[in-house]
Amino acid sequence: MRTIIFAGLLALAPAAYAEDTTTYEVTLKGAAFDITEIKVPAGKPFIIKMNNQNAAPAELEAKDMKIEKAVAGNSSIVVRVKAMEPGKYLFVDEYQEDVAKGYVIVE
């Protein structure tokens, strides 16, 4: 009986974590992100969902946040980010980083 109850509690744990984690959505279209600043609270994990509306693949890269994830054309990815210290963190599409860029601002 204890095993069943414990297993039930473990099954609920990811759901509780997901509810406490805010998702910020950004879309890449052409050579630019639709949102160039994402403001997040310091000390709390968060999620970035990137939609690639281009036919070509892209790669979400943010070196200071340790993110490097490819996304196929006309697809989306989800990246979980650990709690960050206050600061301004650059993110880019690595394939066109001179023009497709934005910032995560942790306050």
Molecular structure report:
The structure is a single chain. By secondary structure, the protein is α+β, with helices and mostly antiparallel strands. It has one domain (22-106): Sandwich (Immunoglobulin-like). Helix content is 18%, strand content 48%. It is built from one helix and nine strands, in the order αβββββββββ. The chain has one helix at residues 2-20; strands at 22-29, 32-33, 37-40, 46-52, 58-62, 67-71, 75-81, 87-93, 101-106. The strands form two sheets. It has a five-stranded mixed sheet, with no helix packed on it. β1 (22-29) and β2 form a beta hairpin. The radius of gyration is 16 Å and the shape is globular.
Features:
Immunoglobulin-like; 1 helix; alpha+beta; 107 residues
Q: Which helices and strands occur, and which strands form pairs?
A:
Blueprint: H1 2-20, E1 22-29, E2 32-33, E3 37-40, E4 46-52, E5 58-62, E6 67-71, E7 75-81, E8 87-93, E9 101-106
Parallel strand pairs: 1-4, 3-9
Antiparallel strand pairs: 1-2, 4-7, 5-6, 5-8, 8-9
